[in-house]
Design a protein that fits this description.
InterPro entries: Isoprenoid_synthase_dom_sf (IPR008949), Terpene_synthase-like (IPR050148). By secondary structure, this protein is mainly alpha-helical. It is built from 13 helices and no strands. It has one domain (7-287): Orthogonal Bundle (Farnesyl Diphosphate Synthase), CATH 1.10.600.
Length: 291
């Protein structure tokens, strides 16, 4: 093993990881400023939850040249948590959900202003952050429209009965679509030519995340009689997703397949690990200096 197990490679690895940590700390500093500027703590999201969202993004998309995708993932995940917390506090009544989704998506300024006028202060502030995020991430009109559509799909996935938590499957699809838009891959002709493959990956992602949501409920004390069967199904579908994403996606771009896999892996990680464990990992990976 002397060709790889030597002090030179160890020193290079430490230097590389230190550079990664410095990059992450700078990005988190900027993300924290965005979090503070928009008073997201007052909207029901703790700073530690925001840091977890960034950690999940950085742990999967860690390349320096993919900062746009990484930060889009983090900011979108943070905002879904904010909106989810608001819905859980106020109840996801159809009129409330419709006000947010319609005001968010309309391109008619007068129509938007009339909608905003009937909202309360919290709804207005959430809408402002959401519109700002879509504008920042959408570089061109067509991608902005795609992001609006993705957010509307996510908002409309909520129902009045879902008071215990967000639609995890819908959040996963929103993250995938956002990452793909920010990468520039979403508008490529590959998606149009391989619609069936893309739809299959979306279906697997949705199915796995639905089951993982049940796993999270069981972790938090809810009685789940068939948890072992759910775990078995998740394992099988994760294998199928990995196969489609990494091996059998002939036409779809490899990075797009990996995006689906990264997002689902992050949901699986959260389903299996406690917040204390995740926070410990965050400290060791992002905050603890390499010796």
């Amino acid at each position: 093993m002397p060709l790889v197990n030597n002090d030179l490679y160890l020193k290079a690895a430490k230097a590389d990881f230190t550079n990664f940590q410095q990059m992450c700390r700078l990005e988190w500093h900027d993300l924290k400023r965005w979090y503070d500027r928009n008073n997201l703590q007052m909207r029901g999201l703790s700073e530690s939850s925001a840091l977890r969202a960034y950690f999940l993004a950085a742990a999967n998309i860690f390349e320096p040249n993919r900062a746009a995708e990484r930060l889009a993932w983090a900011r979108t995940a943070i905002l879904t948590d904010v909106v989810s917390a608001y819905f859980q506090r106020n109840g996801c009544a159809p009129d409330l959900r419709e006000r947010l989704s319609t005001s968010n998506l309309t391109r008619d300024r007068h129509h938007s202003l009339s909608r905003v006028a009937i909202m309360d202060w919290t709804e207005n502030s959430i809408l402002h952050v959401l519109q700002e995020l879509i504008t920042d991430l959408g570089k061109f009109d067509n991608t902005t429209d795609t992001l609006r559509k993705a957010w509307k799909d996510w908002l409309m996935a909520w129902t009045a009965e879902e008071r215990s938590g967000p639609c995890e499957w819908s959040t996963a699809l929103l993250l995938v679509r956002t990452i793909e838009v920010c990468s520039g891959r979403h508008s490529s002709t590959d998606h149009q030519l391989n619609f069936w493959e893309y739809t299959q990956l979306e279906g697997l992602t949705s199915s796995i995340c639905r089951k993982l949501a049940s796993r999270v409920l069981a972790k938090h004390g809810h009685r789940m009689e068939n948890i072992e069967d759910i775990d078995r199904q998740v394992d099988l579908e994760m294998g199928e997703l990995a196969h489609h994403a990494l091996q059998s996606c002939n036409g779809i771009r490899k990075l797009t397949g990996q995006t689906f896999l990264h997002v689902v892996k992050s949901f699986n990680y959260v389903a299996l690990c406690s917040y204390d464990t995740i926070d410990c990992h965050i400290y060791k990976v992002l905050l603890e200096d390499v010796i």
